[in-house]
Amino acid sequence: MKIKTISRSSDTYVPVRNTQESSLPRNLDPSLHPFERAREYTKALTATKLERMFAQPFIGQLGNGHRDGVYSIAKNFRTVNRIATGSGDGVIKYWDLTTRDELYSFKAHYGMCSGLVVTPTHKLLSCGHDKTIKLWKVYDENFEKEEYESESSTQGLEKTFLGEHAFQSLDHHYNDTLFVTGGATINLWDVNRSRPVSDLSWGADNITTVRFNQTETSVFASAGSDNSLILYDIRTNSPTQKIKTSMRSNALCWNPMEAYVFASASEDHNAYLWDMRNMSRSINVFKDHVSAVMDVDFSPTGQEIVTGSYDKTIRIFGYRKGHSRDIYHTKRMQHVFITKFSMDSKYIFSGSDEGNVRLWRAKANERAGPKSTRLRNKLEYDEKLKERYGNMPEIRRIQRHRHLPAVVKKAGEIKRIEIESQKRRENNERRHSKNKQYKSEREKHIVGQVHKQ
Amino acid sequence: MAVYSKDRKLNANLKRLDQQHKDAVRSAKNTEILLQEDAGFLEAEGMEKTYKFTQDSIVKEVDQATANKRFELKLEEFGPYTLDYSRNGRDLLIGGKKGHVASFDWRLGKLDCELHLNETVHAVKYLHNNQYFAVAQKKYVFIYDKTGMELHRLKQHIDSTLLDFLPYHFLLTSAGNTGFLKYHDVSTGELVAEHRTKLGPTQCMRQNPWNAVMHLGHANGQVTLWSPSMPTPLAKILACRGPVRALAVNRDGRHMVVAGADKTLKLWDIRNFKEIDSYYTPTQANTVDISDKGLVSVGWGPHITVWNFLKSHQNSPYMNHMIPSSQIQTTRFVPFEDILGCGHSKGISSVIVPGAGEANFDALEVNPYETAKQRQQTEVLSLLNKLQPDMITLDPNVIGSVDKRAPSKRLTAKDLAELQPSQPGQEIEKKIKPEVKGKNSTVRKAKRKLRQNVINERAKRIERALEKEKLLRKQKHDFSKGIQPEKDVLEGALGRFK
């Protein structure tokens, strides 16, 4: 007879000393693991519920905010914890994000401070409705706070550029000493000169926003009040092409990862994603806002965009998704005029009409600070589970549910009905007319396209 | 590569997922070389037959640790005994018919508690770990803890003789003389479902460990499959010609073994409900159990027979054992051990069956060597991941899989009923009803006059006229709707008799 029985020695499985870890042998035979799907689903459901339980997007406001609405935020692409904000009364404040306190504030302009940007040499460039552009020296570690205590101080002011019209917007070149301003005309300036280097206007309308491409550095784009988007190249010192849309664009932002992609925030409640190589149609439409989108910003990873809207909410969209991943709002936040991702893509700043600068988490349930390996593994596993079972009705319902302000909810409902009836009408027209073509949602808003000869 | 969809992006994602799945399966397969333990076996050499080996000869051959696991408990006063092992196989719970219940660590011989209940004990069952157990007594089911303290009297479970526990759903199920199957959630204390079987006292009950469907054996030879969400059985199997005596389902949910009072022992494939094989027992079997590795133990009279017939037909059993002058009440294989526990009228005996148990346990699932701390953690985690009772279905992987049927077929029964057009005849009947303006059509007036139990020529004539009128109306309606008149098949041959 040949015989063998299972005989385990408990010494291999039971720890001898209490400092020893007990061995945990695994056996991946599926018959030892029944209800695999059902158990994973249950875990995914729990993870989704926990995510919603931990969702606390609002961190706080910076200091005591401004006295007037915040219309410009400048972030430094090379540091994480400093930003500058400019407000409607011409005051610029410089913030330390670690303490969420203001480092210094000063009155820079008479009237509104409409544009604010950090130069590659760590200086601050601001423009205003008082026809001036000012260069400030603030990004210096040795700078003493007292100098800026008094309002309308001129200490720290390095240079003033005098323009011929009120400025609406400005942006600085990635590494050269060039910057561009928008207003009644669009001008290219050199920091070392006091007069504009060139005038790049194409058409006679006001330019509301200009934005340099940070990767393909000699390209920049502008949006004007004639509903146009214009692309320029400073190597040829001329505009290259112009797109006319049905409504005005309020803001622009280039994708930091894909140099040819940019997003525009439109007055028609949508944000659009464009490919500058082919502008006959936009490559994505971000819907959900119920009022004009005032600002748009890409996350430094290029995977998400954040939009602020006149409907007093902030929305975060996946780069290739049509609807928002999340919506942020508070009772006191008024029309949002500016939103920016922080340079580590984990936070969002928003400036709104009532003068506060708010700090939000980009992922509402994420927490900063070091995590143990176990916690990190658990969070990663939960993410994967949520992704895998995200389409189950119950999980989807919990994941998508957001509390909305009554006004926004009502407006959303009305808008949905409007769009439905419009679509129905278009369908009917198409059915009963001979050559009415279907127009996709991505090209509906485009009126015309021109290339500069 | 397979093309899943016209959408290129979706297609690429699906391909990637498919590849990931394949890689996962392959790497899981590769982990087999990391398994530490080897399974047991018993092989005959030369003229020997494995079913001739006695336990005494086996005990001499095996190692000392295994030999120690062979023991007999002489408990002649309170028998016959039924028994149950905890999920990790470490503890043994025994219940004597006459009220003797004991829970102990059977390898160390350490007694947890011993109770004399002074009332009939029908069944005993450990809950999710060795800390709690349920006992089906004369009238009610009681839950005790490890120290033997009575925690709950489940007054909804009256006259239960059979108990089972679904560990992933935390459901205690009971069935018995009332013919009711009851599901009780032991984590919340709620009675989840009670189903009336309408088939008299339930003879036997076991769970399918793969999908948590309860299998009930009845006196009319039927085995019915139940889930808490359905008031009727999911399936009915006519398994034998007499009452069902015992049944068991193996751990991957493919096979069911049914022993009947007609002395048959049948192997069923319960994925497509087909009988695979049929054997017989010399007398009626009392108990059947299937081990982790697919050995089948049958207790009949004083005998225990162990078969290995799940994979192929066998002409002789794998092993035999007899406990003289006793009746086998219950046999249960010990999880993760090569041991068969056997409760009979004179006590408990533990029999060595090489090759029965799963050698390599998964410590994160069920751990026979768990410490108190690990047991507590496992308990908390399993409560967090408790499955809902309505997730019990015949196919446990139905969650998260796509229903590939056409949308029209995917609708619920109610939707389908609404969609289906009502019987064509009925519709016409409704339509061709004459508009009832008044009762005073001439024909009707005449008919009303003649409404009595007299059949005369005139009444017949009027009747015929009415009939004809109705027919004409129907024809007119059909013509307007474009319905072709039905062709009378007998027209040609029998037309002349009209």
Automatic annotation (TrEMBL), chain A:
The keyword Repeat applies. Pfam families: Sof1, WD40. This is Sof1-like protein domain-containing protein. Gene3D superfamilies: YVTN repeat-like/Quinoprotein amine dehydrogenase. Residues 418-430 have a biased composition (Basic and acidic residues). WD repeats lie at residues 63-105, 286-327, 341-370. Its main location: nucleus. Transmembrane segments: none annotated. Residues 1-25 have a biased composition (Polar residues). Residues 1-30, 418-453 are annotated as: Disordered. It comes from the Eukaryota. Belongs to the WD repeat DCAF13/WDSOF1 family. InterPro entries: Sof1 (IPR007287), WD40/YVTN_repeat-like_dom_sf (IPR015943), WD40_PAC1 (IPR020472), WD40_repeat_dom_sf (IPR036322), WD40_rpt (IPR001680), WD_repeat_DCAF13/WDSOF1 (IPR051733). Residues 362-446 form the Sof1-like protein domain. Keywords: Nucleus, Repeat, Ribonucleoprotein, WD repeat. It is found in: Nucleus, Nucleolus.
TrEMBL record, chain B:
It is found in: Nucleus, Nucleolus. WD repeats lie at residues 237-278. InterPro entries: BING4_C_dom, WD40/YVTN_repeat-like_dom_sf, WD40_repeat_dom_sf, WD40_rpt, WDR46/Utp7. Gene3D superfamilies: YVTN repeat-like/Quinoprotein amine dehydrogenase. The keyword Protein biosynthesis does not apply. Pfam families: BING4CT, WD40. Keywords: Nucleus, Repeat, WD repeat. Residues 317-396 form the BING4 C-terminal domain. The keyword Repeat applies. PROSITE patterns: WD_REPEATS_2, WD_REPEATS_REGION. This is BING4 C-terminal domain-containing protein. It comes from Pichia angusta.
